[in-house]
Structure formats: C-alpha cells, structure tokens
Amino acid sequence: MGRFAPSPTGDLHLGSLYTAAASYLDARAHGGRWLVRMEDVDRTREVPGAAAGVLGTLESFGFEWDGEIVRQAERDAHYSAALEALEARGLTFECTCSRLMLAEEERYPGSCRMRAPQPGIASAIRLKVNPREVQFIDRIQGACRQDVALAVGDVILRRRDRLFSYLLAVVVDDAAQGVTHVVRGADLLDSTPRQIYLQQELGLPTPIYAHVPVLVEADGGKLSKSARSVRLDPGQVMAQLMHVFALLGLDPPSAIGDSGIAAAWAWAKGRWDANRVASRQTLHLEG
Ligand code: GLU
Ligand code: ZN
Predict the structure, then answer these.
(1) Which of 239, 244, 271 is nearest to 258 (CA)?
(2) Whose CA is nearest to atom 6 of ligand 1?
(3) Considering 128, 222, 225, 269, which one is annotated as catalytic?
(4) For residue 221, what pLDDT band results from cuts at 50, 70 and 90?
(5) Alpha-carbon span 179 to 23, nearest angstrom
(6) Is it the case that residue 257 has pLDDT exceeding 90?
C-alpha cells in the first residue's frame, strides 16, 4: 500500500508530479493500492481552493487512487488518542519556550523537561526523545542513521496554537491507513528517523521508505513554479508525463508519447524499477 500526501498549499508542479508518479508506479507495479491523503493538519498554511486544484490535476494526469481521500483536518480525534497514550506513559511534557528563546539552539535543549506544568500559559507538548540511534535502509538513498536526540531533541507533538504537528499526524496516518511503502521526496529524508522513533514509541509498524530526488533548476535552485516547463499544464499532459518518466530513469521510447494516457501509465508500470531512480537527493533539470 502506497500513498501520495500533498499539502494543500498551492498547485502541484513538475516536482510534485515526479514524486506522485514514483509512488503511484511503485504501488501499481507491485499490484498494491495507492491512497491520496490531504495533509492539511496545519490549517494556517492551507491555501483556499488548493486541495481541489491538486485533486483535479492528479485526475487530469490520469492518476487513479483507491478509496476516499483522507483529510488530516478531520482526524484530530486520532491524533489526540495517540498523544494521550504517550502522555499516560509519561513520555511527554509541556513546553512554554517561545520561538525566540530557541532561535539560537541547534536542537531543543530540554529546558522544560523538568518544569511543572504552568496552567494558563500557552504551551506546546513535546515528546521526550532519548539518545538512540535510528537506522533504516532507504530503497533509493541506501543506509541511513540518525540519533534523533542529538539531531533535533524533544520533538513537538502538539503546537502552542493547539494544532497537532505534522510529525504526529503523518505517523498516526501512515499506520492507520496501513501504508507499507512510503515513496516521497528526499527533502523528507532527514525527518524519517524522527518518524521511525515516534512509530517505535507508539508501537506502530515502520513502513519501507524510498526517497526520490527533489527536482531542482539547472543552477541548483528551487524549482521556479512560474517556469513554463515546471507549471503543470492540462494541455501538455503527455509531454509532461514523458518528461517525468524520463527523469525517473524509465527511458520512454517516443512512441509511448503518442499512445494515450492510460497506455503510457500501463507501459510505465511494467517498466518501473526503484533501482532506476538516481540515488541522489537532488536532480537538476536541464537548462
Ligand atoms: N505533505 C508533505 C509534503 O507535501 C509530504 C509528506 C509525506 O509524504 O510524508 O511535503
Ligand atoms: Zn521548552
């Protein structure tokens, strides 16, 4: 079971199409199901209309997802339950540190770990993260390891504004939806160890991860969404799909480009192999 988990903060672009195609092909090539989850847990970043736009774009590029779209904004009860389970085991604490107080810190220094709760003061809830090396083998990036306590320290589970963190939401949702194979952008490679750490604390299974490179401009800069080739264009579906298949190492023959969307996807499914994807964290578009 795979999934694509866009945040409704804007339109999909070539980079998101690349990631979505990788997770879709990986699931379908193995006869698996593929889910779409709208990651709108952070309501403050949601752009009105973006969620509908994302789904419309996926449809026009021929993606077919299984089941209903899950929306994080509707799942607070599940995140609460996970938080309460950790609280009951004494694994959490309230943190009243402001962003400013932590601005100079490389990782959370544990300031509030020993402090008694201060009722009436807005506080975040953090997980006590103890030194422990988390290791996993990424299917594309290879062996990865990180001591989460050393890298980031006690992570936030619920923010001061009472919104649950992306970390808690993604861990709870991947488990609740039975996701076994996560394929996503390498910009999330660094946060994978903390997700695995939290899975372990909650007694949840760890999926198998594959982090595909993030597409960047020829000069190494972030994809400029205004560029013609980067903006997804419903009038250029085949050309943009072919571009993405090529960037995934599938080497599509030009005849595939004339075959229609469904046939192109069928061809790509047969051809998919995660080992063809460049094992690097960024992939430069040609200028
Ligand atoms: N919602 C995240 C993003 O759009 C992706 C999270 C994930 O795939 O785990 O960057
Ligand atoms: Zn604190």
Answers:
(1) 239
(2) 5
(3) 225
(4) confident
(5) 11
(6) no
CA dist., res. 192 & res. 224, Å (int): 26
- Rounded-to-integer distance, Cα 181 and Cα 256, Å: 28
CATH number of the structural domain spanning residue 274: 3.40.50.620
Nearest atom (ligand 1) to Cα of 9: 4
Q: How many CB atoms lie within 10 A of CB 251?
A: 10
| H helix or E strand, kind and range, residue 233 | none
The helix/strand count (H/E) of the chain reads as 9, 12
Could you tell me if 88 and 10 lie in one domain? Answer: no
69 and 80 in a single domain? The answer is no
**Residue 127 and residue 112 share a domain:** yes
Q: Which of 169, 189, 205 is the last residue of a domain?
A: 169
pLDDT given for residue 69 in this prediction: 97
Structural domain boundaries, residue 267: 2-73+229-278
Q: Which two tokens stand for residue 33?
A: 């199901």
Over residues 16-73, the pLDDT tens digits come to 999 999 999 999 999 999 999 999 999 999 999 999 999 999 999 999 999 999 999 9
If one counts the domains in the chain, the total is: 2
